[in-house]
Amino acid sequence: MPTRRRRVLVLAICCLSLFIVGLDVTVVNIALPSVRTDLHAPSSGLQWVIDAYTLVLAALLMLSGSTADRVGRRRTFQTGLALFVLGSLLCSLAPGLGWLIAFRALQAVGGSMLNPVAMSIITNTFTDPRERAQAIGVWGGVVGVSMALGPVAGGLLVESAGWRSIFWVNIPVGLAALALTAAYVPESRAPHPRRPDPVGQLLVAVLLGSLTWTIIEGPGRGWTSPAVLAPACAAAGALAAFLAWERRRTEPLVDLRFFRSVPFAGATATAVCAFAALGGFLFLNTLYLQEVRGYDPVRAGLWTLPMAVLTLLCAPLSGRIVGRSGPRLPLLTAGGAMTASALLLTTLTADSSAALLLTAYALFGLGFGMVNAPITNAAVSGMPRERAGVAAAVASTSRQVGQSLGVAVIGTAAVSAVSGPFAQGFPAASHVGWWITAGCGAAVLVLGIITSTRWAGRTAAEVAARLDPDHRKAPART
Q: Which CATH superfamily, name and number, covers 254-478?
């Protein structure tokens, strides 16, 4: 077994990958108005700058995890770091919007090999349950740190050196992580890796890509145009084919029996709703603060600090509450706070008071900080140990799907409602987006109630028994 110093170093290296991937989300959002000006990008183009990354990430997370189990986790992790650094460099050099979107997709290919693989490295390095729990707690805290630093760091970079500089920060950190991984991270593989499912993987990619294209491009091209109807039909066909194919597979990409567990199905839906709210929140607020209020990127980043700081403080608190008394209280708090935040912003005007904005941002940070730990807990609730990793991977994929759909649906609804000059018409037009966000928060609240009942716990135990007849674990505490 590696020494404690070596184990801590491995954890630090893995956290570096999470830091640059997490930082990338909020940093890029802050830079969107500058990208619009420099590359003459329409609002739909800005949505694709975000969604090209999250869609590819969502489509490849499970493939990257199973590949790492088969060919080696360290090797896959190093490949991911190299691709992420290369994608970041190319993004900083992108000559046009189309190139930037393509290079963001390349970034995501690398990103898909980082976080899930790093988590596997951590769980195989920290074999003691207590140390492993502490390591995962540190891992989760890095999400809050990267989110807290993202708006301010992004604002400073964009203001001082332009939007291209937001991608430079990934390069030295990624190269350092690459060198440290080669020196200190041991290679590991799963003893019985799952078989690849290329057909299922392809169908997921077609489904997510076609659905997002339909939502983003529909208003501009016309909902009845062939360029929109054909992808919509492709998405529907891919969904039907995926469900039929996965039922026939011995080792499917996604075991559909998981969804008979109410906590698992609820965790998946909660992840989609919560991260859809996050994607819409970041997109709308960036445009509002910079293009309506006229704030520079630094000032816009500082305004969103209440959200980032509350997320940072509440994420570890949520984990402790889940460990002590179950996921119900964090989920109810998350759903209630996110709903209240969005309802406040449905009254948004060009000159809304600082008190309204800061209260709404703090409430959203409170809600989002509380939601992550119960999602992971509920996803693996009652699952046999050998299936818990796959269940957690589905929850992670659901987070990325939710963020993609949030940017697509909420962004499209708001931008489509703009009448007259953008800066004047956007505040009123954004109300429809905030109502959708409020609906996402309310869904988290309702799901929190349903998935934490005794009946839900029994369904999780029944699914575990079907997946592993020798499994005799009691239902997870609710």
A: MFS general substrate transporter like domains (1.20.1250.20)
Burial letters for 24-40: b for 16+ Cβ neighbours within 10 Å, e otherwise? bbbbbbbbbbbbbeebe
For residue 16, the number of C-alpha atoms closer than 13 Å in the C-beta half-sphere is 24
Total residue length of the chain: 478
Burial-class residue 313 by CB neighbours within 10 Å (0-12, 13-18, 19+). middle
Assigned CATH class of 1-183? mainly alpha
| Domain extent listing, the chain | 1-183, 254-478
Q: Are 284 and 408 in contact (CB under 8 A)?
A: no
The amino acid occupying position 106 is L
Sign, CA torsion 314/318/321/323 = negative
- Residue 288 has what DSSP assignment? I
* Cα dist from 78 to 172, 187, 268, whole Å: 14, 11, 29
Is the entire prediction scored with pTM above 0.85? no
DSSP, residue by residue, 192-231: SPPPP-HHHHHHHHHHHHHHHHHHHHHHHH-TTSHHHHHH
Task: Decide: residue 296, CB within 10 A, 0-12 exposed, 13-18 middle, 19+ buried.
Answer: middle
Is residue 60 within 8 Å of residue 109, measured between CB atoms? yes
Q: 144-178 burial by CB neighbour count: b if 16+ within 10 A, else e? A: bbbbbbbbbbbbbbbbeeebbbbbebbbebbeebb
CA atoms of 231 and 320, how far apart (whole Å) = 44
From CA 333, how far away is CA 351, in angstroms rounded? 29
User: Taking every pair of C-alpha atoms in the chain, what is the biggest distance, in angstroms?
Assistant: 65
Chain-centroid distance of CA 282 in Å reads: 12
Domains 1-183 and 254-478 belong to one CATH topology: yes
Angle at 344 between CA 416 and CA 319, to 5 degrees: 105
Give just the sign of the alpha carbon dihedral 314, 14, 401, 65. negative
Query: pLDDT digit of tens for each residue in the chain (478 aa)?
Result: 678 888 889 888 888 888 888 788 778 888 888 999 999 988 888 889 988 888 888 888 878 877 887 888 889 999 999 999 999 999 999 999 999 999 999 999 998 888 778 877 877 787 776 777 677 667 766 766 776 677 788 888 888 889 999 999 899 999 999 999 998 888 887 777 777 888 888 898 899 889 888 988 887 788 888 988 999 999 999 999 999 998 888 878 777 888 888 888 898 999 999 999 998 998 899 889 998 999 988 888 888 888 888 888 888 788 788 878 888 899 999 999 999 999 999 999 999 999 999 999 999 999 998 988 888 777 766 666 556 666 767 877 888 888 888 888 898 888 888 866 666 688 999 999 999 999 999 999 999 999 888 888 888 788 777 776 554 444 444 4
- Cβ proximity of 390 and 120 under 8 Å: no
- Alpha carbons 401 and 235: distance in angstroms, whole number: 14
